[in-house]
Design brief:
Elements: E1 2-6, E2 15-21, E3 27-33, E4 42-48, E5 56-57, E6 60-61, E7 65-68, E8 78-80, E9 91-98, E10 114-119, H1 134-149, H2 169-172
Antiparallel strand pairs: 1-10, 2-9, 3-8, 3-10, 4-7, 4-9, 5-6
């Protein structure tokens, strides 16, 4: 499942800061997509609630910097965010800055910039137990599937499979054994 969060928190700015809470699921990829009219040199920092917010010193962030443009006007539209910089189930922060010493001053980060992430969501459940009817078994399985999908996915087409077992004499009653001994 892929989610997209907009950094839609105010007007275009030289420094754009946003926070988000990631689901407690395995994250497979994360990107920052920067929207700008014009750019000079961009620097990006990512931190989580357990770390201090980085400051700006000279032409770079003091901590947790994941990207800096190698030269003027060399800004990609998609910047990979290392997964070890993101904490699942916690508040994470992104801060983007354009406009270093010597820049023209009109480069801003637009609120249409986005954070994109992909997570793994389980798509099936196993057999849950013994039920008096097939309908109750299917209802239980559908309920457990909804629980694991959570708010990030919706089951649109469910294929149910039920196994019916009946009239098996040794399943619930005495077993037939043959004991052979020799010397």
């Amino acid at each position: 499942v892929t989610g997209v969060l907009e950094l839609n928190n105010g007007p275009p700015e030289i420094i754009k800061k946003a926070n988000f809470t990631l689901p407690d699921r395995e994250i497979t990829k994360a990107f920052l997509h920067i929207a700008q009219y014009s750019s000079w040199r961009v620097a990006v920092t990512v931190w989580n609630e357990d770390e201090n917010e980085p400051g700006w010193q000279g032409n770079e962030w003091t901590d947790h910097q994941i990207f800096i443009s190698p030269t003027g006007r060399a800004v990609p539209t998609s910047i990979y965010i290392p997964l070890d910089r993101l904490n699942k189930g916690e508040v994470n922060w992104i801060k983007v800055r354009d406009g270093f010493i010597g820049s023209e001053g009109d480069e801003v980060i637009l609120p249409e910039s986005t954070f994109e992430f992909s997570i793994l969501v389980p798509s099936m459940v196993g057999y849950g137990g013994n039920f008096p009817t097939e309908e109750e078994a299917i209802s239980d399985a559908n309920s457990r599937l909804d629980d694991i999908l959570g708010e990030y996915a919706e089951a649109t087409a469910i294929e149910n499979e039920a196994i019916s077992m009946s009239q098996v004499p040794w399943m619930w009653g005495p077993a037939y054994l043959t004991l052979e001994m020799w010397k």
